[in-house]
Amino acid sequence: MTTSRHKTPKPVKLETWLAQAGARWDGQTGAVSMPVYHSSTFRHPGLGQSTGFDYSRSANPTRSVLEETLALAENGPGTRAFAFASGLAAIDAVLRLFHPGDRILVTEDLYGGTFRLFEKLFRPYGITATYVDTASVTAVRQAFKAGDAKAVFLEVPSNPLLNVADIRAIAKLARRHGALTLVDNTFLTFCRQRPLELGADLVVYSATKYLGGHDDVVGGAVITHRPELAERIAFLQNAAGAIPGPQDAWLLLRGLKTLPLRLAKQEANAQALAEWLTRQAAVSRVSYPGLPDHPGHAILKQQASGFGAMIAFEVKEAARIPAILAGVKVFLFAESLGGVESLITFPAVQTHADVALEIRDRLGINDRLLRLSVGIEDVDDLRRDLERVLA
C-alpha cells in the first residue's frame, strides 16, 4: 500500500484544517479517517532506502499526521510540532534544552505538576526556577535585571488563578536579554491565542486537555518555529522516547476535529456562569478573564480572540467546601480540565498539593478556592447545580 502526505489545500481557515486533519493522507485507499499504524517497525524497500518510517519511537505515520496538524494549526508552514506522552513529558523535554547553572523565570502561580518538575527533578541538577508574578511586566523586568536568565516560562492564563501575562511585552524583554520565551498555552489553545505570533519561541501543551477534549487520552506537545530549537526537541523526543502510541495519537487527532466547536460552547457557558457567580452571596471572589473587572481582561482581549472556559472562585467559608464537592450532581469532582464534561476541582489538595502551604496561601490558592472546567452541557443545568450547593 502506498501513502501520501496530508494534502488539504492551504491556506484554509483553521476550522476547515482541523475538521479534515488526516483525511487525505492515505492516497491508496482514500481513507477519510487517518489509519492507526500499530507497528513498531517498518520494512525497508532496499539497502539504504526508507519509506520515511523506520521505527515508531522516531516516527509513526499516525503521530506524524498529528504533529503536522498541530504545527500548521499553531503557526503555519515552517513550524514544527512534536507529540509527547503527556504534557509534563513535553515540558520535561523543553527543560532539557538548558544546562546546570541556568536560571529560568517562571509564572509563580502555575500548575502544581510543573512546579514539581522544576523543583524535584531539575533543581537538583542545577537548573533553577525564579518564580515571578508574570502578570506584571515590571516584575518580569526586575527579575531579568536581577541576574542572567536563560528563559521565561509563562502559563497564560495561569493555573488555577487565571492571571494573564502580556506575552508580547515579555517576549520583547526576553529577546533584549538573550533569553527564550516559553508559553504553556493549554488553557486557550491556538483557537484563541497564538503565542508564536506574539513573539514566543516555543509553545507547550497538555494535549490531554482541550486538544483531546474527551477525557480519554493523555498527551502533550511542543511546537516551535525556530529551526534550531526544533532540531534539539526532535533529538530529545527520539533519544528519551517519551512519545504517545499510535492509538493515543489517533485519539488526539480525532479530538482536534471538533476543538473549535467545543471551545466555543465551553467558553459561552463559562462566561454565563462567571457572571452568575459574581452575584452569589456565598461567593467572595470570582476570577475569569472574560469579566471586565478581571486584571488581565484588557491584555487578553488584545492578544487573544477569547477568554477560555476555566473559572476560579472563592467561597466565603472554607467549611462549606466538602459539602459543595459532595453535593454537585452535574459537575464532576475530578482533576484535569478541558473535556466536554464539566469538572470541579479543589486545587489546594488536588492539583497543587506539592506546593508548600505558605506559598499557596501567599498566592491565593487557599482552602476556599475552587476551580471549574466548564464543559458543553446545558448552561442552565450547570447553573442550577451550582445554585443548589451554594444556596
Short structural summary:
The chain is 36% helix and 14% strand. The chain has helices at 14-19, 61-74, 87-95, 112-122, 137-145, 167-176, 189-192, 227-240, 246-256, 259-277, 297-303, 321-327, 357-363, 379-390, and strands spanning 80-84, 103-107, 128-132, 151-155, 180-184, 202-206, 220-224, 283-287, 310-315, 332-333, 343-345, 369-373.
Spell out the key features of this protein.
single chain, 391 residues, alpha/beta, Aspartate Aminotransferase, domain 2, Aspartate Aminotransferase, domain 1, 7-stranded mixed β-sheet, 14% strand, globular
Would you mind describing this structure in some detail?
With 391 residues, this protein is of the alpha/beta class. The protein folds into 2 domains: 22-256, Type I PLP-dependent aspartate aminotransferase-like (Major domain) (Aspartate Aminotransferase, domain 2, 3-Layer(aba) Sandwich); 259-390, Alpha-Beta Complex (Aspartate Aminotransferase, domain 1), CATH 3.90.1150.10. Helix content is 36%, strand content 14%. It has helices spanning 14-19, 61-74, 87-95, 112-122, 137-145, 167-176, 189-192, 227-240, 246-256, 259-277, 297-303, 321-327, 357-363, 379-390, and strands spanning 80-84, 103-107, 128-132, 151-155, 180-184, 202-206, 220-224, 283-287, 310-315, 332-333, 343-345, 369-373. Helix 2 (61-74) packs parallel to helix 9 (246-256) and helix 3 (87-95) packs across helix 4 (112-122). The longest helix has 19 residues, at 259-277. The model has no long low-confidence stretch (mean pLDDT 93).
